[in-house]
């Protein structure tokens, strides 16, 4: 398991405690924290849990993953966001899914944690969580498990923001599985945090689409290419069939528009919206339901 971490001193302990301090944690689960561009004690805190730690100067999630890959030995390979608490039972459930013939990627069932979020953020996710673009895909979970054969299809992760879109695209649609293990994905606390996250996601989406259009070898990797998002899906597929969501739709449109505007700001960088939300880490996922 590889956990890229950028300035996660305040929260990495919660994530690691849920994993390595669990009674059923064992040597079959390899944990590598890839601290990248950190200016805090993320690496020291991680070492305190007895896990492998890789440090690089560059603040880049994909560069951190590539550095960790050089020392990783365990299979299947699991990539976990540093703000996601995952129990050993969930890790093994993902591994068991990949043991099924024909399955080469597995993800848990996402549950967006809005317990500490403002009403604007809650309203946004009332719509976002139901978008059909997430169905049958690997992104938006904070954790992805892939088989060794998938990992051997490419040399390293490309230098793009959306590593989850990349993994989703290189695995064929019928080779993906969602395991019925809930994982809590922490939502931003404030509307401002949400706008930053959405701006970064929009940048990542466009960056991925540009990479996917490139000629040559990358195109050969795309077993299930992700199409550009529909600008009307939120209305056609989510809001119109459920009139109760009309008030939430106003918030959804407003947050989306503000994110597009912020991304055009000359002072904005993709690093905005990166890192652990103020709401903190959720309870660890792991109970199979």
Task: Outline the fold blueprint.
Elements (H helix, E strand, L loop, with lengths): L1 E4 L6 H9 L11 E5 L5 H6 L4 E5 L4 H9 L7 E4 L7 H11 L6 E9 L5 H10 L14 E4 L1 H4 L11 H8 L5 E11 L4 H22 L4 H5 L11 H7 L6 H18 L26
Parallel strand pairs: 1-2, 2-3, 5-7
Antiparallel strand pairs: 4-6, 5-6
Helix pairs in contact: 5-11, 8-11
Description:
- The protein has 289 residues and is an alpha/beta fold.
- It contains 11 helices and 7 strands.
- The strands form 2 sheets. It has a 4-stranded mixed β-sheet.
- Helix 5 (119-128) crosses helix 11 (246-263) and helix 8 (191-212) crosses helix 11 (246-263).
- The protein starts with a strand and ends in a 26-residue tail after the last helix.
Keywords, please?
Spore Coat Polysaccharide Biosynthesis Protein SpsA, Chain A; Glyco_trans_2-like; 3-stranded parallel sheet; alpha/beta; disordered C terminus; single chain; 289 residues; transferase; 4-stranded mixed sheet; 4,4'-diaponeurosporenoate glycosyltransferase; Nucleotide-diphossugar_trans
Task: Kindly summarize this structure in a few lines.
By secondary structure, the chain is an alpha/beta fold. It has helices at 12-20, 42-47, 61-69, 88-98, 119-128, 148-151, 163-170, 191-212, 217-221, 233-239, 246-263; strands at 2-5, 32-36, 52-56, 77-80, 105-113, 143-146, 176-186.
User: What integer is the average pLDDT?
Assistant: 90
CATH topology: Spore Coat Polysaccharide Biosynthesis Protein SpsA, Chain A
In CATH, what is the class? Answer: Alpha Beta
- CATH second-level architecture: Alpha-Beta Complex
